[in-house]
Amino acid sequence: MEGAARTRARYGRTPYVADVDRAPVAVGRGGTDEGPERLSALSDGVFAIAMTLLVLDVSVPRGLDDAAFHEALRQALPNVGAYALSFAVIANFWSDHRRVLGGVPRVDASVVGLTLLGLALIALLPFPTSLLAEYGYEPLAVAIYSGSVAATNAVHLALLRTSHKRLGPPPDPLTARVRRLDAADLGSSVVVFGVAVPLAFVSPNVAMFFWIILVPAKRVIGGKRRRATAAGGDGTF
């Protein structure tokens, strides 16, 4: 009775099964966490800051005459392009991260560790973005950017696989197919950006064009996933 009263005081009502996800769960030794909600809130803040920092490299000096103004705009175009690319990349990371983290059934030390590692890489992304904007012709700059994106996707893939293990075996073949397609979606990014790292030392331009392969690849994978989900597969992730 006392436990039920405490629970009603916390939630303002009699708890449902869904409230289990918000109950404190153990995180390794000597620590507790309140489920994925707190990690998700922390993640949202880091993603928002990283997105904001991207725009700091986009600027035009004051007090320019017409000729200098137009030249400054021309020189700012690579920064604008790098900003747009990285904003789209981080937005996609944010969407994947919320989707994966929202499906984690139990938060433990490994989930927290992978999440923090992913956030550290996200917070670092403005740096390789500035390198790409200023030195896009340099193989090392393109390699660093590609490696950063590949590493972040690899962490998200590891988090997804950890979540799948926590959920146990898929209950039906369609759910198993959805899980494989989710892993393939993240894995394709790891492969493409990972291959672009050595390719950058052959030709930076070819390496950057190689990224475009992800557009049709993700469309195909996304289409298959939607069909599997519509047929009854569990689309939690």
From TrEMBL:
<keyword id="KW-0407">Ion channel</keyword>
<keyword id="KW-0472">Membrane</keyword>
<comment type="similarity">
    <text>Belongs to the TMEM175 family.</text>
</comment>
<keyword id="KW-0630">Potassium</keyword>
<keyword id="KW-0631">Potassium channel</keyword>
<dbReference type="InterPro" id="IPR010617">
    <property type="entry name" value="TMEM175-like"/>
</dbReference>
<keyword id="KW-0812">Transmembrane</keyword>
<keyword id="KW-0813">Transport</keyword>
<feature type="transmembrane region" description="Helical">
    <location>
        <begin position="39"/>
        <end position="56"/>
    </location>
</feature>
<feature type="transmembrane region" description="Helical">
    <location>
        <begin position="190"/>
        <end position="217"/>
    </location>
</feature>
<keyword id="KW-0406">Ion transport</keyword>
<dbReference type="GO" id="GO:0015252">
    <property type="term" value="F:proton channel activity"/>
</dbReference>
<keyword id="KW-0633">Potassium transport</keyword>
<dbReference type="GO" id="GO:0005267">
    <property type="term" value="F:potassium channel activity"/>
</dbReference>
<dbReference type="GO" id="GO:0016020">
    <property type="term" value="C:membrane"/>
</dbReference>
<feature type="transmembrane region" description="Helical">
    <location>
        <begin position="107"/>
        <end position="127"/>
    </location>
</feature>
<keyword id="KW-1133">Transmembrane helix</keyword>
<dbReference type="Pfam" id="PF06736">
    <property type="entry name" value="TMEM175"/>
</dbReference>
<protein>
    <recommendedName>
        <fullName>DUF1211 domain-containing protein</fullName>
    </recommendedName>
</protein>
<feature type="transmembrane region" description="Helical">
    <location>
        <begin position="76"/>
        <end position="95"/>
    </location>
</feature>
